[in-house]
C-alpha cells in the first residue's frame, strides 16, 4: 500500500492504535484490516457462513486501494473499546434547565467517542423572557451557543480533536438579530457553527420588500416584526465578515424528507451535509473519483460499471456499520435502526475533470456532475431489489 509522507503523519498522529505507553501498535494495513473485519461481521446475521470473510476482503481492498474511505470515527473506533462508528448526530434541546443539561451531557458523550453534534434551538425562549422559577429570566439561544461550545472544548473527540457542533435558529425567532451576530466578537469556539433556517415565505418577503412576523416559541404569540430584506442583508454581511451564519432552506429540505410521518427536519448534522431528525445519526463515507477512470489512448473516460460496483459495496459497508455500531444512547440506537441513515459522497471531482480534459467552470463539467450523482440512485434501486 503506497502512502505519502503526509498521509503517514496523519495516520500516526490521529488514527493508528497505540499501546498503554503511547507507542504505535498497528500499521496502516492493520488499521484497515481491523475496520474491514469489524464491519463485515454484520454479514453473519443475514448470510451463509463465509460471506463475512468474503465481504471483509472486499472492504479491505477498496480501503487500501483508496477507492473508498469511511468517516474518522469508523477508522478510529472499529474493533476497539469505544466502538462508536458514526460521525454525525442531531440532538433535541428542550426549553428547560433539565432539557438543556440533558442535551449537553449527551453531546459530551458523543464528542468523547469521536462524533459531532447538530442542535436546533427552535424551542428555546428569547433572552430575558420570564421563567417560572422566581424572578429569573431566560438566557436565550445566543448564550446557549457559549454553553455548548465550552462543553465541546472540555471534551476532546476520542483524544484526537475538539468536538464539532452546529446550532440552528428559525428566522422568525425573536432573538434572530442577536443570533446572526453571535460570533462577531470571537467569544465562541471556532468549532461551533451557527445556521439560520429560512422559509419559503421569508424569501418571498425578501423579494417583495415586506416585513415578516417574529414568533415566541414558548408562547406561540407574535412578538414583533422585521424587514425581511434587512434581515437577509444582515445574514449575508455577517457571513461575509465572520464565516457565520450559514443558511438552510428548511422548507426545501423537508420536500425531500423520506420519513415525514416521523417528523420534520429542523436542522442538519454539524457539517451541514445531511438533515436529520432528533436523535438520528449518520455514518459517512467517500468515494475517490480520480481512480474511477479508464485510459483510452491519450484520453480518459469514467468507468461507470466499476463506479457502480464500488457504490454498491460502499453502501453495503455503511449499512453494515449500522449493525456493529456501539451507540451512545438508547434513543440514538432506536432512531438509527428505524431509518438507517447513511451518507455517501465523492471526492477527487476536480482531479477527475483535469484527467478528462474538462474545464471546471464549463457546462460539460455540470453534465459530468449530473451523471455522476445519478449513478448512486441507480445503484440504490439495485441494492433494494436484493432485500425486497
Automatic annotation (TrEMBL):
Domain Ribonucleotide reductase large subunit N-terminal: 1-83
Pfam families in the cross-refs: Ribonuc_red_lgC (PF02867), Ribonuc_red_lgN (PF00317)
Cofactor: adenosylcob(III)alamin
Reactions it catalyzes: a 2'-deoxyribonucleoside 5'-diphosphate + [thioredoxin]-disulfide + H2O = a ribonucleoside 5'-diphosphate + [thioredoxin]-dithiol
GO process terms (BP): deoxyribonucleotide biosynthetic process; DNA biosynthetic process
Residue runs in coiled coils: none
Gene3D superfamilies per record: 3.20.70.20
UniProt GO MF annotations: ATP binding; cobalamin binding; ribonucleoside-diphosphate reductase activity, thioredoxin disulfide as acceptor
UniProt xrefs under CDD domains: RNR_II_dimer
Keywords: Cobalamin, Cobalt, Deoxyribonucleotide synthesis, Disulfide bond, DNA synthesis, Nucleotide-binding, Oxidoreductase
All residue ranges annotated as the Ribonucleotide reductase large subunit C-terminal domain in the record: 86-373
Broadest EC class assigned to this enzyme: oxidoreductase
InterPro entries per the UniProt record, alphabetical: RdRp_reductase_class-2, RNR_lg_C, RNR_lsu_N, RNR_NrdJ/NrdZ, RNR_R1-su_N
EC number: 1.17.4.1
UniProt similarity note: Belongs to the ribonucleoside diphosphate reductase large chain family. Belongs to the ribonucleoside diphosphate reductase class-2 family.
Record's function text: Provides the precursors necessary for DNA synthesis. Catalyzes the biosynthesis of deoxyribonucleotides from the corresponding ribonucleotides.
Identification of the protein by name: Ribonucleoside-diphosphate reductase
Species whose genome carries this gene: Dehalococcoides mccartyi
Amino acid at each position: 500500500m503506497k502512502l505519502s509522507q503526509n498521509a503517514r503523519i496523519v495516520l500516526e498522529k490521529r488514527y493508528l492504535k497505540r499501546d498503554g505507553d503511547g507507542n504505535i501498535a498497528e500499521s496502516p494495513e492493520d488499521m484497515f484490516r481491523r475496520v474491514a473485519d469489524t464491519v463485515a461481521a454484520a454479514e453473519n446475521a443475514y448470510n451463509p457462513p463465509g460471506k463475512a470473510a468474503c465481504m471483509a476482503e472486499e472492504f479491505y481492498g477498496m480501503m487500501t486501494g483508496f477507492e473508498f474511505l469511511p468517516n474518522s470515527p469508523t477508522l478510529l473506533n472499529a474493533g476497539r473499546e469505544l466502538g462508536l462508528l458514526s460521525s454525525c448526530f442531531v440532538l433535541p434541546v428542550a426549553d428547560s434547565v433539565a432539557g438543556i443539561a440533558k442535551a449537553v451531557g449527551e453531546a459530551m458523550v458523543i464528542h468523547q467517542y469521536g462524533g459531532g453534534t447538530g442542535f436546533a434551538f427552535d424551542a428555546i425562549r428569547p433572552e430575558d423572557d420570564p421563567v417560572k422559577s422566581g424572578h429569573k429570566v431566560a438566557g436565550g439561544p445566543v448564550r446557549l451557543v457559549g454553553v455548548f461550545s465550552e462543553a465541546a472544548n472540555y471534551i476532546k473527540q476520542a483524544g484526537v480533536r475538539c468536538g464539532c457542533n452546529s446550532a440552528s435558529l428559525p428566522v422568525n425567532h425573536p432573538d434572530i438579530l442577536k443570533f446572526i451576530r453571535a460570533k462577531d466578537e470571537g467569544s465562541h469556539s471556532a468549532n461551533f457553527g451557527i445556521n439560520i433556517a429560512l422559509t419559503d415565505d421569508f424569501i418571498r418577503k425578501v423579494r417583495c420588500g415586506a416585513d415578516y412576523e417574529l414568533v415566541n416559541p414558548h408562547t406561540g404569540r407574535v412578538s414583533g416584526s422585521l424587514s425581511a430584506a434587512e434581515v437577509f442583508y444582515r445574514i449575508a454581511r455577517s457571513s461575509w465578515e465572520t464565516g457565520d451564519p450559514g443558511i438552510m432552506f428548511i422548507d426545501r429540505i423537508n420536500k425531500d424528507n423520506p420519513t415525514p410521518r416521523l417528523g420534520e427536519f429542523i436542522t442538519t448534522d454539524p457539517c451541514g451535509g445531511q438533515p436529520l431528525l432528533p436523535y438520528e445519526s449518520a455514518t459517512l463515507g467517500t468515494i475517490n473519483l480520480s481512480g474511477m477512470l479508464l485510459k483510452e489512448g491519450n484520453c480518459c473516460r469514467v468507468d461507470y460499471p466499476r463506479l457502480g460496483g464500488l457504490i454498491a459495496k460502499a453502501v453495503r459497508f455503511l449499512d453494515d456499520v449500522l449493525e456493529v455500531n456501539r451507540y451512545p444512547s438508547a434513543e440514538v440506537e432506536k432512531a438509527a435502526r428505524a431509518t438507517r441513515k447513511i451518507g455517501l459522497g465523492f471526492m477527487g471531482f476536480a482531479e477527475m475533470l483535469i484527467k478528462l480534459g474538462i474545464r471546471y467552470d464549463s457546462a460539460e463539467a455540470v453534465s459530468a456532475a449530473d451523471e455522476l450523482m445519478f449513478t448512486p440512485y441507480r445503484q440504490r434501486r439495485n441494492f433494494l431489489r436484493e432485500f425486497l
